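Q: Fold this one first, please.
A: Sequence and structure below.
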Amino acid sequence: KPEIGIDLPDDLVFANAKYKALRSLVRETFESFLRSLNSQSLRWLEQQFEIHGALNSGDFLRVFARVCPRLDCIHFPRYEERKVAVHLAVLKLFEGMDVDQSGEASWMEFVEFIS
């Protein structure tokens, strides 16, 4: 099984640059997800909420990672590294939606967030 994570260089300057690149990739992934929403992906997401109800962070990650784009990035050539960026972007979305800090996100919270 491939190791999940980000390989950081030992050199502090290069590690800092890679960390900044990761933050940038997470932001770009988050924005790309919001731009790429269409009627088909919204309907599928709505069905997931209908089936599961409000989603905790783990379920939210599992569901939303399926529709979140994995962007190519020269700083993160491995699929596993880009997957980390997707997970961080999805968790950023969850935190932004869970304004009542209930630990769960509902379909209505999602709709309000993207409106």
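Q: Good. Now the second chain.
A: Here it is, same layout.
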Amino acid sequence: MVLDHEREHPSRWAAITSIAAKIGCTGQTLNEWVKKAEVEAVEFATLEWVDWFNNRRLLAPIGNIPPAEAEARHYALLEETAMAA
């Protein structure tokens, strides 16, 4: 919301105070909400990337399978070896 209105104001703070007045809170409160939302967006994007990196990316050196699948196969093989012994 702030980013949409930022272009209409000379600064980000001006946009925040303008919006804050319209929704009935202080500029500082809205600024904190915006910062928290930005951090959460980065955290979520990071989680999405890690999920892709571990579960969907095909890695040629391990047989064009995702790393998570290779790890699961490794531990399954260890269990089979332990049971055989």
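Q: Anything worth noting on the second one?
A: Residues 27-55 form the longest helix (29 residues).
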